[in-house]
Design brief:
The protein is mostly beta strands. It folds into four domains: 211 residues, Immunoglobulins (Immunoglobulin-like), CATH 2.60.40; 175 residues, Sandwich (Immunoglobulin-like); 157 residues, Immunoglobulin-like, CATH 2.60.40.3450; 115 residues, Sandwich (Immunoglobulin-like), CATH 2.60.40. It is built from two helices and 47 strands. A six-stranded antiparallel β-sheet has the order 3-6-8-13-10-11, with no helix packed on it. Strands 16, 18, 20, 21, 24 and 28 form a six-stranded mixed β-sheet that branches.
Length: 678
């Protein structure tokens, strides 16, 4: 607001009085000239007197009126901007589109005592306002119109009698688009002809108002997101039930309400909306915040477009649209990104066409945008976000395989840490297995239990360095009620073609006794099954079948058997009849010999399992039988025969080595004595 005081110089012998505005904060000019001109007046008369025909004359005295002229006028701004009657029409709303118009209202008043003519001019336009203007006015006396409304061009004139006013409307039209909040101004000036004729300076013959327009428009912050049925951005084209849930939010961050807005989402190749009656259908929804009323979302006949028409969106309120799509017959190859955009259109100037066009992808997809957003501002109003709306196609298959480095093992009767290594591999596509806990387990279970063979369930480990045995620092897995969690073995999961090696330790505690009532565990075995157990769907793809591999642990060692025969001493061994049973009577008499044959069989078939330092001891029951010193030995293969050492009563035969599947044999005899005869 401002107060204008105009000072004037003396034009004639009169005095110019300086006066401030009589209407506070309005542009008013007042000019007084005393004795501006004089009005002299006298009366004359002619007459005759009765009985006298001569015309008589009479003349009165002269009276003089010295007239004072007052040139006074004001120009006040009349738009409803919270301060009607000042010299500023402030923040008058105007649409942002080129060609939009706005009315600025003023009142021009002739407050003097003379008629005056005023020239109306416009100056100092900003931000394309006005590109052109029409000036209309209606003269009034009090509240009564005088004549009709008239239109003049810029620079035209208005003539007012004393006490008359003119209601002026300046219709200003813009030349180009503007962004929200553009502050545009120009001035309107009324110049008095009377004061101009009196020689007043430029400042002392004009009254000026400022017209200020603020660009008002809705601007829309559009955010679009996509989530597949997998709960992520992966769209599994191998799954007939795959779908994408789209969510579009449109917030009006402008400075006026949006009316009759159209929201459109055109689906690209690879996607089509799921329609009523189809699998996984859910109805599209439109939800309005605040007091805006939600319209319906419609799916086109071909399912390629979802549209909301005639939607009002009030300032600072949001419309949320959701719908569901599935793959169509043109689904792109695995690894293809599918991106589409939401489009919002509004007729901001009410001319019947959509002049505000805003895409969630900011002109992506071939759209030419007109948003009226001030993108030069930090965190500007109407910022869009389509970054969360891209999905990536995949062709998900699940295939978990397990292989054993060695399916079966032959181990010693008494042994520890016989290690089996199993490789679990993800042979599927586009799915990471065991990325989370409780998704894939594996179990290690004997198919038939042998008490002498024990799976060391507390030391199942990850063979991280692939050397086939446990090393300090490698992960020991924890057995749970469901088995061993594969995620513990592969913390980040197994991507396609990734694998992890699992070590299982087996201990044995067997016996090789052939005594009556003894236990001989040679060739006893136990088979353990290692089974991979997917627990359910991963990324929407059902669990594959359980897969299993088995390994058999067989106890091997030296099977020691003893045979005997009785005959005359120094008999040919080839003539003897060997038996493992008792002998009595017949040749079993003092003076003859008992012949012994001991076989030691290396029962391992694994050629690496050579028996070394095999010592066979036979304790003779002396003096009932006396060793004859006739020790001989042979082997069934290329291993060397045993050597003998006798230290009564023990006869020891030692094989330096005995190859797998070979049998070493010892022969010797002892003479039956008289000891023990009754």
């Amino acid at each position: 607001m401002r107060t204008n005081i105009f000072k004037h110089s003396v034009l004639t012998a009169g005095i110019v009085a300086a006066m401030s505005m009589t209407a506070a904060n309005a542009a008013e000019v007042v000019y007084d000239e005393k004795d501006a001109f004089s009005v002299a007046n006298k009366a004359t008369a002619t007459y005759t007197v009765a009985d006298n025909s001569n015309q008589q004359t009479a003349e009165s005295n002269e009276v003089i009126v010295n007239v004072t002229e007052t040139g006074a006028f004001s120009l006040v701004a009349k738009n409803d901007d919270g301060n009607i009657g000042d010299d500023l029409n402030e923040d008058v709303a105007i649409n942002p589109a080129a060609g939009s118009s706005v009315d600025f209202n003023h009142t021009l008043s002739n407050d003097g005592n003379i008629s005056d003519t005023y020239t109306i001019s416009l100056a100092n336009p900003s931000n394309s306002l006005p590109a052109s203007a029409a000036i209309k006015y209606q003269i009034k006396e009090g509240n009564t119109n005088v004549g009709n409304s008239e239109t003049i061009a810029i620079g035209g004139t208005i003539t007012l009698k004393p006490s008359q006013t003119a209601d002026i409307t300046i219709i200003a039209t813009t030349s180009s688009d503007r962004v929200i909040g553009n502050d545009t101004s120009f001035t309107v000036t009324a110049t008095s002809k009377y004061l101009t004729d009196k020689g007043q300076t430029a400042a002392d013959k004009k009254a000026t108002n400022t017209n200020n327009a603020i660009t008002t428009t809705p601007v829309y912050a559009i955010t679009k997101s996509a989530t597949t049925n997998l709960g992520n951005k992966t769209f599994d084209t191998n799954n007939a039930g795959a779908y994408v849930d789209y969510k579009i939010t449109v917030k009006n961050e402008g400075n006026i309400n949006g009316t009759a807005v159209r929201i459109t989402d055109a689906l690209p190749n690879g996607l089509v909306a799921i329609k009523s009656g189809e699998d996984n259908y859910i109805a599209p929804t439109v939800v309005a915040s605040g007091t805006s009323t939600a319209k319906d979302a419609n799916i086109s006949t071909n399912g390629k477009e979802i549209t909301v028409i005639g939607q009002d969106i009030k300032m600072n309120e949001t419309i949320t649209v959701t719908f569901r799509a599935k793959k169509d017959t043109t689904t792109p190859a695995t690894g293809t990104n599918i991106t589409n955009y939401a489009l919002v259109e509004d007729d901001v100037d009410g001319n019947g066409s959509y002049d505000l066009v805003d895409s969630s992808g900011d002109s992506a997809g071939g759209v030419t945008e007109t948003t009226y957003e001030d993108t030069t501002a930090t965190n500007y109003k109407g910022k869009d976000n389509n970054s969360n709306a891209t999905i990536t196609t995949s062709s998900q298959t699940r295939n978990l395989a397990i292989e054993s480095n060695t399916l079966d093992k032959e181990v010693a009767l008494i042994s520890q840490n016989n290690t089996y290594i199993y490789t679990i591999t993800n042979k599927g596509t586009d799915i990471v297995e065991a990325a989370d806990t409780d998704k894939v387990y594996f179990t290690i279970v004997p198919t038939a239990n042998d008490d002498s063979i024990t799976i060391n369930e507390a030391e199942v480990f990850v063979d991280a360095n692939d050397n086939g045995s446990y090393d300090s620092g490698e992960t020991i897995l924890t057995k749970t009620a469901n088995g061993y969690d594969l995620n513990e073995a592969a913390k980040s999961g197994l991507a396609p073609d990734d694998f992890v090696k699992i070590g299982v330790k087996v201990n044995t505690n067997g016996s090789g006794s052939n005594l009556t009532g003894g236990t001989n565990n040679i060739d006893d075995s136990e088979t353990m099954a290692i089974t991979v157990l997917p627990q359910g769907p991963v990324a929407g793809t059902p669990a594959p079948a359980n897969t299993s591999v088995s390994s058999t642990t067989t106890m091997k060692g030296v099977n020691l058997l003893k045979y005997q025969a009785v005959a005359a001493c120094k008999a040919d061994l080839s003539t003897l009849s060997w038996t493992t049973d008792s002998i009595s009577g017949g040749e079993a008499k003092p003076g003859n010999c008992v012949y012994y044959k001991i076989t030691a069989e290396n029962t391992f078939s694994d050629t690496t399992k050579v028996i070394n330092g095999l010592t066979v001891t036979d304790t003779l029951e002396t003096p009932k039988i006396i060793y004859e010193g006739d020790f001989t030995s042979e082997t069934s293969g290329s291993s060397p025969a045993a050597t003998a050492t006798y230290n009564a009563p023990n006869l020891v035969g030692t094989f330096g080595s005995l190859a797998a599947s070979e049998t070493g044999t010892i022969y010797f005899s002892a003479k039956i004595s008289q000891t023990g005869t009754n």
